[in-house]
Amino acid sequence: MTADELYQQAFRSEIAALKPASLCDVGCGAGTLLTHARSLGIAAAGIEPDPAKASEASAQGLDVRGGAAEALPFPDAAFDLVTFENSLHHVTEIGRALAEAMRVARRGVVIVDPWFDLSIPSQAVGDRYERWMKALDRLTGMIHWDPIAAGAIAAACNGSTVTVRHLLQLTPMSNEAFEYYAGRAQPHRELPVYQANGMDHELAAIRAAFESTGITEAGALLVTVLK
Predict the structure, then answer these.
(1) Are 224 and 108 in contact (CB under 8 A)?
(2) 117: containing domain
(3) What CA–CA distance (Å, rounded) separates 175 from 153?
(4) CB within 8 A of 72, min separation 6: which ones?
(5) pLDDT tens-place string over residues 77-123
């Protein structure tokens, strides 16, 4: 089982254990989780800001609406659960999105998002590279936040019961993958903002660390906040 499959399985098992009758998946993409939820007899709807992905999901007969996490188009307590599957770090305002999720949820919110164990050297380098890649994305207009701490999630949700699990299956990053991601910077190297932020200097330092220590891919932070 790959690391991604392990994290997805844990996330879905967490949802199934709560036995929800309904859920809303925020940032649902093409609707993979919605399809899985329906297979379990869960009434599922999704919110997706990308029109192309929303259309793809709707074409499969899924209930997917365009919209933003910060203003969910549902009344209070419309669903048992609200879920974020690797989408929380893409919302514009994390605190506001989580407050909206708790408003719409009758029972609570379940979140899985990338996480690094900084006590492991290869994970610390992975975290540094992840932050570099996300900084590059933000320079080019994408909403892509650094790894989110469990405490920040719990504080924003303000629920009565919080469960946090840290999942990690160490997967080394290959040299080919490292250079592929580094190559994404090439079209932007002449931009003043790229140079002003010292992006090439940081990349060189990360490459040196990669060569001496290696990089392992992100683990997963699994957070459940119940009302």
Answers:
(1) yes
(2) 3-226
(3) 33
(4) 24, 26, 47, 82, 100, 101, 103, 104
(5) 999 999 999 999 999 999 999 999 999 999 999 999 999 999 999 99
Length of the chain: 227
Which of 26, 14, 154 lies closest to 97 in space, CA to CA? 26
Number of domains, the chain? 1
The CATH number covering residue 126 comes to: 3.40.50.150
Gap between the Cα atoms of 129 and 205, Å rounded: 10
- Helix/strand/coil percentages in the chain, nearest 5: 45, 20, 30
79-85 vs 22-26, strand pairing mode: parallel
Inter-residue contact 60 to 33 (CB < 8 Å): no
Q: Name residues whose C-beta falls within 8 Å of residue 102's C-beta, 6 or more positions apart in sequence.
A: 82, 108, 109, 157, 158, 159, 225, 227
